[in-house]
Every structure is written in C-alpha cells, then in structure tokens.
Amino acid sequence: MTIRRISTRFALLLGLAAVVPLLVYGLVSILSLQRGTRESVVNGNRNVAVRAAEEIRRYVVTNAELLKALAADLQDTGLTTAQQDQILKNYVLQFHEFRELTLFDERGAAIVSSRVGTPRITIPKDATLAVEGVTMSPMRVDEDLLPTSTFAIHLTRLNKPAGWLAGEISLEEMWRMVDQIRIGEHGFAMVVDPRGELIAHGDPDKKALVAQTRNMSAHPLVSSGAGPQGASPVAQEYVEGGRRELGVAARIPDLGWTVIVEQPTSEAYATATVLQQQLVVVISLALVAMITVGYLFGRTFINPIHALKKATHDVAAGELGTRVHVDRRDELGDLGEAFNTMADRLVALQEEVKRQERQAMFGRVAAGLVHDLSHPIQNIGNSTRLLLRDDLDAESRELFRRTIERELATLKRFMEDLRHVVKPRPIERFAMDVNGSVAEIVEPMRTEGDRNGVTVEAHYAPGPLVIEGDRFALGRVYRNLITNAIQATEPGGRVTIATARVGDRVEISVTDTGSGIPPERLSAIFDDFVTTKRRGLGLGLAISKRIVEQLDGTIAVQSEVGRGTAFTLQFPARDDRAQAAAS
C-alpha cells in the first residue's frame, strides 16, 4: 500500500510539474475572461439604456415643445374664439400624439377645445414634472389601455396671466420604443416613474404589470436610487423572479424617470461561459494525460522498490532464501545486487549463530546439571559413607538418613523440572480452596525459612476462596515462589504470603524483602533457562507461568532493587456450587 501511494504521489508530482503553469495560466485567463466579459456586457447594456433614456426624453420634450409652439400662436395674437378653435382642431389632426387640446381661462373654465362637446381634460393639479416650461401629470393608462399624460402651459398676455393651454398626449410611441429594445433573446427594458410605478415594459408577459400600475420600489436598481439625474448609469447583478439578472439603470433628465435594461446573466455571459468550459476541459484532459504518463513512468521506477520491499518482508519473516531480480543498470540495480549479497551473508551468519547457540546452550545445560547435581550427590555420598561407620549413634544415623532422603527429593524435583520442560504434565481441574492449598505449602516452608534466618508469614482472606485448579500443580508453583523468595532474602528478612478476593478474581501474592531484580531483567525471568541466582537451570518460574496460564490465571511481578520483589497470582473465582464442592 505504501509503494502504491509513493507511485501515486510520483505520478501526481510529474503531472503537477507539467500542468501547474497551465493551471495558473488557465485560472488567470478565466478570471480575465470573466472580468472582460462583464465589463463588455455592462458597457453594451449601459449604452442601450442611455440611448433609450435619451430617445424617451427627446420624445417627451418634442411633445412639450409642440405645446409651447401652439401656446405661442394663441397668446398675444388677438385671435377670435372661432380662430382659436380652428387652430386647436388643426393641431390635433396634424399631430396624432395630441388626443385633445383645450384652452382655459385663468379661472379654469374651458374657452375652446378640439373635442366636440364637453372637454375631458382639466388643468392638471397633480403635475409633478416640468419639461421645457411645460408641466406634466403622471402617466396613466386610459380606457383603451394606452398610456396618456396631460401637458399644460400657463399663457400670458402683455406679461399678465391669460389662462391655460392643456393637452392630452398619447405616449403610445414611448411604449413602442421600449418594446423595440431587446438584449439577446431574453433581455428587455422597462421604465419606472419617480414614484416607483412601472409605466412601460418591453417583455410581453409583463405588460399587464403596467396596467396594474405595479410599484417597483423594491426592485434593487429602483431602491438604490440608480444615482441622481445626470449621474452615470448604475449596473448591478441581482436575483429577480428566481433568475439571476444583470441590470443597468439610466435616469432621464428633467423627467425623473428611470430606464432599466435587464438581461439574464446566463445569457449575458453565455459566450464567456462556453469559453471557460472549453478551457477547463482542455486543462483537465492535459492534467489527466500527464498524470497517466507520470503514473506509468512512475511504476517502472517504483516496481524495483516494490520488489525490494517485498523481499525485505520475506527475509524479516525468516525466508532467507528470497532473492530479487532487478534488471536495471542504475542505482536500483546496484541496490538489488547489494540486497542479494546481504541475504547470502545473512544465511551464513544464521548458520554460524545456530552453531554458537547450540554450543552455548549445551555448555549452559551441562554447567547447570553439574552445579545442581554435584551438591546433592556429594551430600548423598558423604552421608552414605558416614552411615557405614560402626561407631555412629542412632541419632546421627537418623540425621544422615533424612539428609539422603532430602537430597534424593531434590534430585527427583530437578528431574521433574527437566521432564516438564520437554513434555508438560497435563493439568486436572477441580474445585479447591485457595487458603487451604496455600497453607499446606507455607507450613513446611517455615522450617526452611528458619534454617536461612528468614521469617515466613501468611495472611489469609476470611471465608473460603474457591477456584478451579490442580492442588498439586499449584503447590509446585507456591513452593517455587516461596523458595525463590527465601533464597533472595538476607537473614533477618521476611517473606509474606497473602490471599485476597479482588472483584471476581482470587489473588495470591508472595512478597519478600530481598535484593530485588534489576528492571532490564524483569521481562525475561519467565523464560526457560533464565535465572537471577548463582545456581539452577532457571526452569522454576517458566514452569510456574505455564501452570498458571493453563488454569486461566495470570502471574505478574513487581520488583525494586534493594527493597524486594512481589509476585502476584490471579485466578477466576467460582460460584457457590463450586464452593460447596470444595468444602
């Protein structure tokens, strides 16, 4: 897995080394393309909005100037009422934007009108705009659903007020102007008056909003004010009707109207988006191609390392016959040859180590046998010769006889240790009381402790402590631990044996006040042929550990040099039925 990751990283490194410049160039190109496209689209839409605003302004101003020209014809000329009436009717026939023209006196009473019958218009009292000296009422939609507005101009005669000239003007041509403004397939224009009401819209699906006098104050470009009159057009992106739009707003001087040109950003930036996608595809293909080439090249470079890694694992697992074949004439080939040479050398060293280990083990076993057997055999020989003397009294004969029996028992125990190492004795389990089994061993061991000047103490937990075990096998464990503790303790010291119940386990501890065991040797004291004493083969603790583990128990040791050692045995406690059986 590690080699594969190296191969992958190598391929990525090669790919990145080749493609990073392309990625940087592509990123810069994409950003420049996006910025340039937005500036180009915004400038184009801004020009459209500005031209539309200027045409609408010119259209309205033209109508206002026509009304001013008519006012000039009517004031200070001394025309009769009939002549004035004829002029108004001719004006309406000549200029179709004027639906009705009416001349009012200063009190607001109609004098003459182009309309046959009672005039429909009055002097506008809600006029909020002044264009070229002509007041203009807000645009409204008439009964024919066409846009109209009332223009009015105050007449003077000899610099004195002489009445009003009012005209109802159709702004239908303005709607046609707005309808003709198209930006792409889905870009339209609309016009909003100073009150925020929609007065024209180029989208056929939204013309009904004009008839409804929809208030557009919440529109982002309207709510932002779109700048004061004469200021540069404002461009902004926003979400309208669930679609992201690019809008440009331009104010119409004098009128206070706002022309807004909207276009979906998906359409406005379509060309840039296509170019960006093409650039991303090209870069992606180049990256994949370079990574593929790098991966294939990397495998030819990594495969010899993979072979060396596998061979190293095989050698570490003991397969010293493993060899690698690296058919290269470079450093990797030299490394393969060095590995094979190392493996050959390891085989030779292993054979040499085995030979030396056999010699060392044989010498150690022989020295241990001589050391452990010489003393008991010498004692048996001496006691036997003394028993043959005729002048020996009965008490001495009994002493020598016990000596012979004790040394024979020592020899027997020594032989059993050797036999258990080769062929462990099977363990028979049965319910047993720990306190009783410990007491059976501790009491005889007090005599050996007294002989060595060591006090042997025992502390038993109250009540029966029942486990499933082998009384004789565990007796061997107790005896080994107590004997080792006595031998490791100087005269005047103490060996303590204690039993206890710890949760669902039974614990037996053997603690001495001896010399302790160095920390570097603690981890190996349960191994075969390892001992901290000057005599013995080092089999007692190894055999004890096997017995404890066969009974599902654990054995642990804690030691401090100069203060003593503590061995702790733990076994699973049994239930009441087992306690009854043990009792």
Proportion of β residues? 15-25%
Low-pLDDT runs of 5+ residues are none
Fourth CATH level, the homologous superfamily of the largest domain: PAS domain
CATH overall fold name of the largest domain: Beta-Lactamase
Instruction: Describe the oligomeric state of these chains in a short phrase.
Output: single chain
Beta-strand segment tally: 19
Alpha-beta content class:
alpha+beta
- What about the largest sheet? 7 strands, antiparallel
For the record, the CATH architecture of the largest domain stands as: 2-Layer Sandwich
| Gross morphology | elongated
N-to-C CA distance: 60 Å
Overall residue-averaged pLDDT value? 80
Task: Throw out a few tags for this protein.
583 residues, Beta-Lactamase, 14 helices, 20% strand, Heat Shock Protein 90, 3 domains
What is the gist of this entry?
With 583 residues, this protein is α+β, with helices and mostly antiparallel strands. It has helices spanning 2-74, 81-94, 172-180, 208-211, 220-223, 265-268, 270-316, 331-387, 394-422, 434-451, 471-488, 519-522, 540-550, 576-582; strands at 98-104, 110-113, 129-131, 134-136, 140-141, 147-157, 160-170, 188-192, 198-201, 234-240, 243-251, 258-264, 430-433, 455-459, 466-469, 494-502, 505-512, 554-560, 564-572.
Structure description:
This protein is 51% helix and 20% strand. It is built from 14 helices and 19 strands. Strands 1, 2, 3, 4, 5, 6 and 7 form a 7-stranded antiparallel beta sheet that branches. Strands 9-8-12-11-10 form a 5-stranded antiparallel beta sheet. Strands 14-16-17-19-18 form a 5-stranded mixed beta sheet. A hairpin with a 5-residue loop joins strand 8 and strand 9. It is elongated. It starts with a helix and ends with a helix. The model has no long low-confidence stretch (mean pLDDT 80).
